[in-house]
Amino acid sequence: MISSTHDAPSYGRLFAIAGFPRLVASMMLARVAEQMVSLVLVLFALQHYGSPEIAGAVTFLSVAPGLLASPIGGALLDRHGRTRLIVLDYAIAGVTLALIAALAVVDRLPVPALLLIVTISSFTQPLGNTGVRTLFPLIVPRPLWERANAIDSNGYVVASIVGPALAGTLVALFGAPAALAFTASIFAVAALVAIGIRDPGGRTEAGNLLGDAWRGLVYVAKHATLRPLALAVTTANLGSGIFFLALPVLVLTRFGAGAEFVGLLFALAGVSGSISVLLMGRISTLGRERQLLAGAMLGTAACFAFVLLFPQPLLVAVAMLAWGIATGPFDVVLFTIRQRRTDPAWLGRAFAVSMALNFAGFPIGSAIAGAVVPVSIELAFGLAVAATIAGAALAYAGIPERDAPASVS
Question: What is the structure's pLDDT at 26?
């Protein structure tokens, strides 16, 4: 029980925890790189191949294979620990991006080769993303979870400020291959920083890897909270995936602006989101999770609808600022409810599966957008609005109001 000002939750106490600052530093570098590569690959496909369909396929394959491999990734994390596997993921990401850049420079990058390389890179992503996420509740005491999750979420938000703006600027000034090479170097530094980070988690006994991965899937499928959470969030992320591809097409073709303006728009969402998540981290979310999640999704849907109805540069910028504000309650609540209601012994497997299912809608949405945008940008934005509203309804109706038992039979 927290009984004194000295023991009260604070960001100062959080960063005094051994290993936490290094974990945050490595996480921030990797997430900036992830935000950069997501946008650079879209811009590269649009500019180099002139095809929204290829851009949608690249976005899909840069994410979807890793989602499919996530149960195995989670089992590996529970078996072998997290730090070494995080470093492995960052190293592979850096190598594959450097390879794409090199092949593009010498004009030896046909579409099948590009799709194959991004697919290979995707397979190890659960090791880095889930490994970092599961280290947070292992290193941080429970009373500091909201603040830790605000820092975790802010890692994405700050990365969404720096990453897209930097990516757009580098593409505009030096071209996509140079931007990819720079991103590869950031992953390399993130890997170096992550080496030796303290991992206090236990290890599961060695056994059948596929069986262990399957049990992680079953755990999430039977869980009273994780199952409806996955359904709601992945539905809403269909809308985010559609919007992520449709917005650059709108800027490049309708506004006549360049890659730097695309990066600026996403950075605006990051600026407001950074403030939003830090404020949200000061608030207890216990017992209000589904209301806050559903409300954040409806706020996102309203921002997408605003872009659909008022597709002018200044008004789109306002919508992006509002979208960032909605990410605060969404991210902090999502991270905290998953920690609070998951058995610690299942952190790697359950988080890997849950995170994959939650994010599955994004690459699918991007693939859908790649097919729909050439027909109608307006239809794409309309689908983004509809999917996000559906996700809000599923969150409110499906997530239990009270904490369920952490484990299932």
Answer: 92
Average pLDDT over residues 319-330: 85
pTM, rounded to two decimals: 0.69
CATH number at residue 256: 1.20.1250.20
- Alpha-carbon distance of 84 to 89, in angstroms, equals 9
Calculate mean pLDDT across residues 51-74. 83
Domain count, the chain: 1
Give Cβ neighbours of residue 12 (< 8 Å, ≥ 6 apart). Answer: none
Give, rounded to a whole angstrom, the gap between the first and last alpha carbons of the chain.
30
pLDDT tens digits along 387-399: 999 999 999 888 8
In a domain, 10, yes or no: no
Q: What is the mean pLDDT of residues 238-259?
A: 87
How many Å apart are CA 409 and CA 224, to the nearest integer? 11
Burial of 237 (0-12, 13-18, 19+ CB in 10 A): buried
Q: Which two tokens stand for residue 16?
A: 């005094």
Give the 3-state secondary structure of 10-40: CHHHHHCCCCHHHHHHHHHHHHHHHHHHHHH
**How many other C-beta atoms lie within 10 A of the C-beta of residue 172?**
17
Structural domain range at position 120: 18-398
In a domain, 350, yes or no: yes
DSSP state of 144: G
Residue 311 lies in a domain: yes
Predicted pLDDT at 1: 34
Rounded distance between C-alpha atoms, residue 320 and residue 309, angstroms: 14
Residue at 362 is within a domain = yes
Query: Could you tell me the pLDDT band of residue 383, with boundaries at 50, 70 and 90?
Result: very high
What is the residue type of 57? A
Q: DSSP H helical segments within 45-144, as ranges?
A: 52-61, 64-80, 83-105, 111-123, 125-139
Q: Read off the pLDDT band of 94 (50, 70, 90).
A: very high
